[in-house]
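Supplementary Methods, section 5.1.

A reviewer requested that the exact input to the structure prediction be made available. We therefore reproduce it here, unchanged from the version used in the analyses.
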Amino acid sequence: MLTPVVRFRIDFADHANVGPGKIALLEAIRNSGSLSQAARDLRMSYRRAWLLVASLNKSFAKPVSQATTGGKGGGGASLTKFGEQLIKSYRALDRDISLLAARRLNLIVPAVLKRRHSKASSPRRSLGHNRV
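The structure derived from this sequence is encoded token-by-token as follows.
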């Protein structure tokens, strides 16, 4: 059976928003310890990743990440406690919304026509709403 995928963005204020892309970037930073590696993992330019993190850090009174300068071991990036809480809160809301969508759409999903993907259309991919 098909499972609907809900994607959402939270707009806290003008130019202060969080969505699946920014959360995925923060998770990639957490996993790799590096902004440049996180960007590569997500197939994103370093500049784009840097701009997204900068926009998050400007959106809140507390930063979501912090950079460490290079040296013998090289530089890196890590999440702050606030950044970790942002991921945790977003993923909890993601799970809640997914469960609600499944309940609300349980009579609709069986009516969705299943079609083979042609080369012209790309398959939808889950954004990891089943991850922690």
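Confidence is low (pLDDT under 50) at residues 127-132. These observations are discussed further in the main text.
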